[in-house]
Amino acid sequence: MVDEQVEQEWDVIVLGGGPAGYFAAIRCAESAIDNGSPLRVLVVERARRSLGKVIISGGERCNVTHACFDPARLVTYYPRGSAALRGAFSRFQPRDTVNWFEKRGVILKTEEDGRMFPVTDSSKTIVDCLEDAARRAGVTVWNQASLLNIDRISALPEQAARFRITLRRDTLDSEQVLSAHSVLFATGSESFCHNILARLGHTIEPPVPSLFTFKITDVRIAELAGLSVPVAGLRFVGDPDSEKVPFPPQQGALLITHWGLSGPAILRLSAWGARWLYERNYQAGLLVNWLHPLSVELVYEHLSKHRNLPENNRKKPGAHSVFPQIPVRLWKRLTEAAGISETQNWADVSRLCMRRLAEELTMGRYDVEGKGIFKDEFVTCGGVNLDEVDFKTMQSRLVAGLYFAGEILDIDGLTGGFNFQNAWTTGWLAGGAMAKL
Ligand SMILES: Cc1cc2nc3c(=O)[nH]c(=O)nc-3n(C[C@H](O)[C@H](O)[C@H](O)COP(=O)(O)OP(=O)(O)OC[C@H]3O[C@@H](n4cnc5c(N)ncnc54)[C@H](O)[C@@H]3O)c2cc1C
Q: Rounded distance, CA 288 to CA 228, Å?
């Protein structure tokens, strides 16, 4: 049933009550008050509860942002969107995020790896802060309200264009029609909204997952779940080997799991390779350097010296790891893979086996068979094509009055607070621009 009687006029409608939508709505309402001309700002959220992902984020601690305050360096953490975000971060960056929350009573702390969390270690602190700020700024929030359709009402020359929006309101068990001058899409990676935007003329880069672990079944790492090395180097090999892999190798901690491999280095590689891996149905050859940054030659040299020391002649190669960063159980598997038997002494190890061991240690090939999940964070790569958006205002270059913020854009970052920072920055810019009606 469409309730035609209750068509309501709003100044600004924000579609999606996630972090990007809330940040934009708050900035818009606050700026309009500061400008002396308050606006009617409505947030429309499909779920019963807004800010659902903030609640579950960062293991319910909410990794709000990252302590990287140089925009030029910050953009290097975004496999997609770095060029577009460069200017945006010069206007609103992690330092501004820290100040924004601090001004509203939320203090953030920095962990050793640069991730920033509320000092309470609770995502509820962030949710409460955003909801409180929205209430204070006079933002109206409708939950259980879903966008069904949007049309641009053609404007007469003397009138500003408006949008007509049809919603499904579960609480009223009806549809409702609204209108507004400005509409912000902050609906995340929703394909339904992608389709609506495609109808309005926008190009949508196909959505595919980012930030995942790798499924690998390999005797060298079987039943070693929990073992890790502090810094491994990872890169994919093309198929055929001459194919150029279109993203850089990654380094970082590497963790063996029941499924295969995980840890920061894998997550980074999954983000950079999100589309490449998707196109290969998540099957690719991965080269692992367990001793990054050592080269195969250096490792071979080191192994030769170790073997030639008289005190090592009669020791068993598999019993003790020559490199302290490699756990002994993993070391034993790698020596076996190199063809060195349990009964051999170092003195019996051939040059060929030593060469093989050096290769196992620095360029062992593991076949990725599929994609796992990463429980702490998950994002989608793909979304609204960035060339069609003006990053000073986040307004569509194709449809005046239409704005975008957050994950609906073809932007995604590595783990560490970068995805929320995208939501804060683009939401803040869009909110400011919409306030200048
Ligand atoms: C488990 C998990 C943990 C994470 N942890 C972190 C972290 O610690 N740090 C970090 O930086 N990033 C983290 N992320 C990523 C981060 O949550 C997202 O990048 C961020 O939430 C994107 O914000 P957004 O507002 O653009 O979209 P969303 O948060 O997805 O919000 C979009 C909103 O729009 C609503 N919506 C969709 N369609 C409609 C419709 N038709 N009508 C009305 N409403 C609609 C949705 O219900 C949703 O509430 C995590 C993600 C996950 C899944």
A: 13
The CATH number of residue 82's host domain is: 3.50.50.60
Judge if the beta carbon of residue 289 lies within 6 A of ligand 1.
no
Q: What angle (nearest 5°) sits at the alpha carbon of residue 406, between those of residues 421 and 103?
A: 45
Domain that holds residue 314: 213-373
- Residue 203's alpha-carbon distances to 137, 187, 218, 320, 409, in angstroms, are 34, 16, 41, 57, 11
* Residue to mutate (ligand 1; options 43, 57, 108; most atoms within 8 A of CB): 57
Q: Is the CB of 186 under 6 A from ligand 1?
A: yes
Residue range 73-127, pLDDT digits in tens: 999 999 999 999 999 999 999 999 999 999 999 999 999 999 999 999 999 999 9
Q: Answer yes or no: do 176 and 254 share one domain.
A: no
Read off the pLDDT of residues 150-208 as tens digits, 9 standing for 90 and up.
998 866 655 667 999 999 999 999 999 999 999 999 999 989 999 999 999 999 999 99
pLDDT tens sequence across 197-226: 999 999 999 999 999 999 999 999 999 999
Question: Same domain for 250 and 168?
Answer: no
Which one of 333, 349, 373 terminates a domain?
Answer: 373
| H/E element, 302 | helix 296-308
Whether 6 shows a pLDDT value over 80: the answer reads no
Peptide bond preceding 94: is omega within 30 degrees of 0, i.e. cis?
no
Task: Indicate the residue type of 368.
Answer: V
Phi, psi for residue 121 in degrees, rounded to 5: 55, 35
List residues bridging with 85 in a β-sheet: none
